[in-house]
Amino acid sequence: MSGSGADKAESGRSVRNARLSRATPWLWVGVALLLTALASAAVGAVPIPPVTAARILLARLPALHIRADWPASYATILYEIRLPNLALTALTGMALAGSGAAFQGLFRNPLADPYVIGVASGAGLGAVLAMSAHWPAGVLGLAAVPVAGFIGAVLTVGLVYSLSRVGGSTPVTTLILAGVAVSSFATAGTSLILLLSTSELHRAVTWMVGGFSLGGWEPVLAASPYLLLGLGVLVLLGRPINVLQFGDEQARQLGLDVERLKLVIVVAASLVAATAVSFSGIIAFVGLIVPHLTRLLWGPDYRRLLPLATLLGGSFLLAADTAARAVLSPRELPVGVVTSIVGAPFFLWLLHRARRRLRGW
Amino acid sequence: MAELELQSASLGYADHPVLRQVSLRVDPGEVLAVVGPNGVGKSTLIKAASGALPPLSGEVRINGLDLRSLRPAARARLVSVVPQATDLPGSFLALDVVLMGRTPYLGWLENEGALDREAAQLAMQRTELAELAERPVGELSGGEQQRVLIARALAQQAPVMLLDEPTAHLDLRHQDQVLRLVRELARERSLAVLLALHDLNLVARFADRVALLSNGGVRALGKPEQVLTPDGLAEVYGMHIHVMPHPVFGTPLVLSGE
């Protein structure tokens, strides 16, 4: 064959390119996370230049011998306020994007997201119920709220899933209708409870639209175990979730215990989403936009999609939160307002595309 | 030993039995085609043979093992299913789809190893897909997609292979190609192949035996020339049917027309 030399060179190049393109997504999301974290640390009522913020953080490493030439208040603001907020924001973004990707894989539907399918509202109802019951304060009390949120979330997914299933799959129409109905019900329940407990009203309303109002390291510590557990399980299940994309019947014929796998995904993803909602309120569309973007950029393989979307979700919410604090400074927008302003049009665009692809509605 | 065996099995759903008292067996190396009018229960039979639909009564066994008693992974090591190539998640690469045939050999948290990659590669070579390995399945033609699904079933390395209308959306050339491949695979790997097929002329050319379904049961079972007779077909399909020897192969050639 005359072209075999060229073919070999070509295939050598494509192997190298393939290896490079396997590594680059991680590089991109890593850089994005770093940059958005720095921006988030810098922006606020007292602006701290990003370079100074980075130097303050690096000064903790004695080996670097960085001289403290910044006002002492900077370090306090950074460690007591900015960093815990930053950590909670990043964790929330990761949780929303990771659980969004998992729900999309579970429902085999690109429009599934904790907000759209009502899991967030269900978790919110559970969390508000727990808060209004005056559970103990402190890290332990905070750690109990996600448990209530989790119960609400699992019940909601179960309900939406059984309502929207038509012959082994979950069509867009029924999924969204069931999600809207169940989520309206849960939201109404939440509003009712909040109205009945007037003293907490203001704080709860801020919480409902997704502001990070808790503050301090306690919520970060309380949320981390749930998120690590849930996201860890989801990320490890990438390969069987791939098999699920061929439909329940084929997955079963390929030897997958479909019902058990789905149960594990529902439990893990609900735990993650409920934790995010319990600490940060209902933040819409992160779980929709980020996995979609990840899929467009780096393909449908859940073994990569889940961890990449999770990391990207962290930097996405950091960016949204930074924007929320910067735009009307010194006033702060709730971050949920920002994600909805970006997310709702995106959702409509997706719906438009789905409508074109799936004729019939 | 019979590979796949149905013993007086009644198949369907509790409120809607489709087939009653079906008894048939498929031996290693043999291609058995299931034919009959629309809605007669061809797909039901395939589903039951895959273990997806437990029989209402009677037994479905592979290598003597009752499918109901097996976990999904154990079942998938005994029987592979080639579905119609519709509605595949198109952005997965062909190789990734074939690798999914290894699912019954892997735990949830396990990734494919060298052995699995080798099985997938061999399956793709055998189905002439090696060059298409890195292409998204959505970009492949209908015939190529069908071959990807056959390769996936091969990678599953089960002694029984079921195919549900594998030629439904293919043109003449690809119909021929796919069925020829299936018959060759049955021979060289001693697979017991059960095939639901619409086109009686393809059945006549590629099946070793035919089961003609009608009225909730097996109406005739035997070699194509024994089952594909004008009288038998006329009764089942409710119309006048001519059968003559194929000018090239000598197999039955079935033509409809009053």
Mind explaining what this structure looks like?
The complex is a heterodimer of chains A (361) and B (258). With 361 residues, chain A is mostly helical. Helix content of chain A is 76%, strand content 0%. The longest helix of chain A has 39 residues, at 4-42. The N and C termini of chain A lie far apart (53 Å). Helices cover 32% and strands 27% of the residues of chain B. Chain B is globular and about 55 Å long. In chain B, strand 1 (4-13) and strand 2 (16-26) form a beta hairpin. The model of chain B has no long low-confidence stretch (mean pLDDT 92). In chain B, strands 6-7-8-3-9-10 form a six-stranded mixed sheet, with helices on both faces. Chain B contains nine helices and twelve strands. Chain B has 258 residues and is of the alpha/beta class.
Set down the secondary structure blueprint.
The complex is a heterodimer of chains A (about 350) and B (about 260).
Chain A: H1 4-42, H2 50-58, H3 72-107, H4 119-132, H5 138-164, H6 172-196, H7 201-208, H8 218-236, H9 238-244, H10 248-253, H11 258-280, H12 286-298, H13 302-327, H14 335-357
Chain B: E1 4-13, E2 16-26, E3 31-35, H1 42-50, E4 57-62, E5 65-66, H2 72-76, E6 79-82, H3 94-99, H4 114-126, H5 142-155, E7 160-164, H6 172-188, E8 192-196, H7 200-206, E9 209-214, E10 217-222, H8 224-227, H9 230-237, E11 241-245, E12 252-256
Parallel strand pairs in B: 3-8, 3-9, 6-7, 7-8
Antiparallel strand pairs in B: 1-2, 1-4, 4-5, 9-10, 11-12
Helix pairs in contact in B: 4-5, 5-6
